[in-house]
Amino acid sequence: MPEFSTLAAVDLGSNSFHCQIGRVVGDQVYPLDSLREPVLLGAGLTKDKRIDEDTQERAFACLKRFGERLRDFDKRAVRAVGTNTLRVAKNASTFLRRAQAALGFPIEVVSGREEARLIYLGVSHELPASREKRLVVDIGGGSTELIIGSGYRPQKLESLFMGCVSYSLRYFEDGKITKGAMKQAELAARNELQPIVAKFSRGNWQQAVGSSGTVRALAEAIQQNGFGEDAITAAGLDRLRSHLIKAGDMDKADLAGLKPDRLPVFPGGLAILNAVFSELDIDSMGVAEGAMRQGVLYDLLGRVHHKDMRDVTVAQFMQRYHVDALQARRVGTLADNLYRKLTAESGEPEEDISRSIAWAAKLHEIGISVAFSGYHKHSAYILANADMPGFSRDEQTRLAVLVQAHRRSLNKVAKTIDELEGDWDMVFCLRLATLLLRSRSDVALPPLAARRQGRKFRLAIDPAWLARNPLTVTALHDEIREWDRIDFEIKVPGLEEPEAGELALAS
Q: 136 pairs with which residues across the strands?
C-alpha cells in the first residue's frame, strides 16, 4: 500500500456522524479538519429494529456532504466505520448500499469489541504517555465501551448494549425527567454492568478517563454550572442529577455550555455514567480529546505503514490454534501465484485480494484443533464468531467463507460467494493449492497455467507429471465433479478419464 500524507476517518455513530481528516507526520496524525452532524441514527430505530426512512434520508444527506469533502481522496486513504445501530438494524445491508453510494467510499460495520479497541487507540494517542493502567469509558448513542489498557495496548475490552440515545428514548420520553425514571435508568445500567464489575473495578486500574461527546458534554455541564471543577466527580454528577430532577424537563433545565442537539440524549448519558461510577467505584474521571475516529485514523496509519493490526491478529490465531506454519506458507504462496496467473489480463491483483488469500491460507486449518473431521467448517465457525482485532464484520465473514470453501462441498457456500464479487477466483486457487500440496511437503510441482471465462476454468498441467501422480489425478476428477454441481466447468487438457470403478477420494 502506498503511503499517504493525508488520511480520513468517518464514524457513523448512533448519535452523531463524524468526519476527521488528519495530516501524517512520521508515526503521528495531526488534525486538519473535522466535521460533525447530529444524525441521531439510533433514534430512528423502529420497534422492529429498522432504521426509518426520515432518519435514512438525514443520514444520506450528511454522508453526501462528507463525500464532497473527501472527493479527492484515494479510497485507500479513507476508512468509514459503522457502530451499534448498524450492528442491530435489520435493514442495515440496504442502508449501507445507499450510504456507500452517498459517501463514495466503502463502509465497514465493526463489532463492539473492535469499536472498543479503536476507541482506546484514539484515546491513548491523545493522552500523555504513562505506564499506569487506564480505564477508558466511552458512552455512545447505542452502546457503551469500557477498556483497560496501558500505553497503546488495550488489555480488557467490553461493549455493553446501553447508550445515551437508547436510554433517553426508553426512560426520558420527550425530555421529561423524574426521580423514579432516573433511578430506573440507573438500575438498568447497573444491571448491564454487573457481569463485568470484577474485571473493571477499581483495583484493576489507576486512572479513569472518559471519551467522546457524551462524557465531554457531562463534564462541561458540571464545570460551567458550578457543580464541580476540572474532573468529573461522583459529587458533581450527583449535583447535576439533582438539578435535572428538580427541573423535571430538559427544556427547563437551563444548563450553560450544553449544545441544543445534546438536550434529547443528555439524561440517558447521565444515568449511564452515574451507574458506571457506582458499580466501578470511581471517584474522579478525566476527559480525553481522543475518540473512535482518531483511533480509526491511527489504525489506518498502521495499515499504510505496514503495521496492520489484522496481521498481528492472524499471527496470534496461528499460534493459538497450533497452525502448521510451513504448510500455511506453501498453500498461500501457491494460491497467490495461481491467482496472478488466473487474472493476469487484469494486471496486478489489488492488495486486499492478495492479503485475503494470505490470511485464508494461514487460517484455513485452525479448525483441526477442534476436530479433523469437517475441520473446514470448524475453521469457518471460529473465524465468523471470534473477536478478531482489526477486522470488520464483513472482512471476517469473507474470510470465514473462503476458509469453508477451500475443501469438500461448494453447495453450502455458493450463494454467499456469488454475493462476494471476485471471490470465486480466490476459492478456485485456494482449493487447487490445498489439493496439489496434500503431501504437506515441498514437492516439485510442474509449471501451472490457469484462466477463467465466465463459469469456465481452464487449468494446464504437464500430462507427464499427471501420469506420475495418480492420487492427484483422482483428486482433480473429484474437484471437477464438485464444481460441476454448482454449474462451473473445469477443463484440464491431458487429464485422463478415471478408470471404471475408481473411488472418490475422502479429502
A: 147, 209
State phi, psi for 201 to the nearest 5 degrees.
-70, 175
pLDDT above 70 (res 421): no
C-alpha cell at 178: 423524574
In this predicted model, what pLDDT tens digit does every residue of 354-387 receive, in sequence order? Answer: 999 999 999 999 999 999 999 999 999 999 999 9
- Cell match 454475493: residue? 419
Among 152, 277, 135, CA closest to 207: 135
**Residue in 211, 7, 5, 4 with CA at minimum distance from that of residue 118:** 211
Mean pLDDT throughout 429-454?
95
**Residue 153, all three cell numbers:** 495496548
Instruction: Centre a 10 Å sphere on the Cβ of residue 10 and count the other Cβ atoms it contains.
Output: 27
Q: Is residue 145 a contact partner of residue 119, using CB atoms and an 8 Å limit?
A: yes
3-class secondary-structure state, position 92: helix
Please report the domains of the chain, with CATH numbers, ordered by start residue. Answer: 6-110+294-303 (3.30.420.40), 128-287 (3.30.420.150), 308-445 (1.10.3210.10)
- How far is the C-alpha of 95 from the C-alpha of 79, rounded, in Å? 18
Sign of CA dihedral 231, 235, 241, 246: negative
Of 343, 446, 359, 366, whose CA–CA distance to 396 is shortest?
A: 359
Percent of the chain with pLDDT over 70: 97
Contacts of 500 (CB under 8 A, 6+ apart): none
pLDDT tens-digit profile of 73-114? 999 999 999 999 999 999 999 999 999 999 999 999 999 999
**DSSP for 273-303, written as a single string:** HHHHHHHHT-SEEEE-S--HHHHHHHHHHHH
Backbone angles phi, psi at 244, to 5 degrees: -70, -40
| pLDDT (tens digit per residue) in 160-195 | 999 999 999 999 999 999 999 999 999 999 999 999
Q: Do residues 342 and 452 make contact, with C-beta atoms less than 8 angstroms apart?
A: yes
- Please give the pLDDT value at position 3: 81
**Mean pLDDT over residues 22-44, rounded?**
94
Nearest to 139 by CA among 212, 30, 46: 212
Of 42, 57, 45, 33, whose CA–CA distance to 12 is shortest?
A: 42
Instruction: Tell me, rounded to whole angstroms, the distance of Cα 173 from its chain centroid.
Output: 32
Per-residue pLDDT, 506: 45
What's the half-sphere exposure (Cβ side, CA atoms, 13 Å) at 362? 17
Q: Which three cell numbers stand for residue 316?
A: 496470534
Nearest to 504 by CA among 485, 463, 476, 484: 476
Give CA 418 to chain center in angstroms.
22
Q: Are 192 and 163 in contact (CB under 8 A)?
A: no
Q: CA geometry: angle at 183 spanning 181 and 187, to 5°?
A: 115
